[in-house]
Amino acid sequence: MEEAANDSYDGKILYNELVLIALIEQEYIKAELSSKNDDSKYIKFLQTLLSSNKRVKLQEACCRQIIKFFEKRDEEHNIAHKDCKDE
Q1: Which residues pair with 35 in a beta bridge?
Q2: Does the global pTM surpass 0.85?
Q3: C-alpha angle 6/11/60, rounded to 5°?
Q4: Distance from CA of residue 44 to its chain's centroid?
Q5: 20 CB contacts (<8 Å, ≥6 apart)?
Q6: Selection from 12, 37, 36 nearest residue 3 by Cα
């Protein structure tokens, strides 16, 4: 997983698609690749999977997680921005 989150990934990882989808949807891989407030390796991993394969169900799982990540980030930004306006 770490290799796929790095720029040196060559796309040669064998995996069971359904197992990988389950690991992504249950956020197991996110927990393994992310540190406290840094999800950059996890997002890079999802981007790499998304661009390196043609498996539609896996691409859908990656897209859902990326959308979920940005929705959460935007929500946190809006809450912080609202708090600044209230002061």
Answers
A1: 38
A2: no
A3: 90
A4: 7
A5: 49, 58, 61
A6: 12
Contact criterion met (CB below 8 Å) for 29 and 66? no
Weakest-pLDDT range from 35-39, 62-66, 83-87: 83-87
- Please give the Cα distance from 41 to 18 (Å, whole number): 22
Tell me the per-residue pLDDT of 8-48, one tens digit each, with 9 for 90 and over: 555 667 789 999 999 999 999 999 998 878 888 999 999 98
**Cβ–Cβ < 8 Å for 72, 66:** no
Name the CA dihedral angle for 38, 40, 46, 52, rounded to a multiple of 10 degrees: -160
Q: How far apart are CA 62 and CA 66, in angstroms?
A: 6
The residue among 55, 60, 61, 57 whose CA lies nearest residue 23 is 61
